[in-house]
Amino acid sequence: MNIIFPQSVEELNMPDQKPIFVTQPYLPPLDDFLPYLRKIWDSKMLTNNGPFHQQLENALCKYLGVEHIALFSNGTLALITALKALRITGEVITTPYSFVATAHSLLWNGNKPVFVDIEPETLNIDPTKIEAAITPQTTAIMPVHCYGNPCNVEAIQTIADNYNLRVIYDACHAFGVKDDGASVLIHGDLSVLSFHATKVFNTFEGGAIICPDAKTKRHIDNLKNFGFVDEITVVAPGINGKMSEINAAFGLVQLEHMEHVLQRRAEIDAAYRSGLANVNGIHCIPQTATEVRNHSYFPIMVTSDYPATRDELYQKLKDNDINGRRYFYPLISEFPMCRGLSSADTGNLPVATDAASKVLCLPIYPALESHQIDRICQIIGG
Ligand SMILES: *Cc1c(COP(=O)(O)O)cnc(C)c1O
Questions:
Q1: Which pLDDT value is given to residue 289?
Q2: What is the 277 CA–ligand 1 centroid distance (Å)?
Q3: Full set of structural domains in the chain with CATH
Q4: ∠ at Cα 288 (363, 104), nearest 5°?
Q5: pTM of the model
Q6: CA-CA-CA-CA torsion sign (188, 191, 85, 133)
Q7: Which of 79, 99, 173, 204 to mutate to test the pocket of ligand 1 (most atoms within 8 A of CB)?
Q8: What is the Å distance from ligand 1's center to 325 Cα?
């Protein structure tokens, strides 16, 4: 008989050596979804504000604690439509530390993004640096609740009120996040969500705009439907941003599983924090005093006290089939479409530049198992 002793932690875990990615979409049991498909096949209502679309809007308003929501086919079209709805022109102040779609939406709307540096702890736009970036052309601020941690919404609103600016939150990371007893999505003029497959709540592809009142929602609903207000009246150069019945029905099924999803994410977050607590040079982003978190990401900062660079650790994990992601590296301001913008100079963005060089997002999703988290922590620790 041949007894083979494991040579390393990695070998011990050989049976689980399926690649681990930074996220894995949550899917409910397929059988729960099939009755919805049958209804769609029977009704032949595939899109254009069908029954599931209406049901999902109502269910999301209730779940999120907001008054009005307009569903979209994805978050990027929702961002662009939000800018169109408020007729945003000229310059818009935003963060370089985000997914590219934040600034892309500004460029698609013909706006000039003006990048402002971030806070070192929350990694959100630094309100104390916004005023210096305001010019006569500035019309709006587009902050991001990065990793689902709420921005300093009061400070941002005070500046917006003083200078008569609009605020559109890219809240694509902030599904379900609550602060001061209310949804974080009620702040600013509009907030935009993404329901992409990689997000905490997904409809395969999807997105939404949280609207403050029924009139704004009606206007946004018209814009996402080519600008139609009735059968023969078109009032604006609208877009097709509608969510289909399949995606809406899927969202209704997903919503029933959110409690489990958020609970698992919280457990994984806690497991990483304790597993990495004694690793020299690894800094977990502190949790803000937010009431309800969604743990949409688990970012760590690989500091100079760590025996390897961030990219070496990224590669070491990759060699072990663990695929973290360097969100957000490079900064949006470093991409070619932002070259030539004076606000994109790294000298203007020291905190964001530093964060982008150190950050690594570790895998976090409901199906991630505790022995996998242990293995990830062991690899980082040793
Ligand atoms: C995902 C994401 C978007 C884009 O959403 P899509 O639904 O993929 O178009 C925009 N901004 C941020 C911060 C995101 O994370």
A1: 74
A2: 31
A3: 30-255 (3.40.640.10), 258-381 (3.90.1150.10)
A4: 65
A5: 0.95
A6: positive
A7: 99
A8: 15
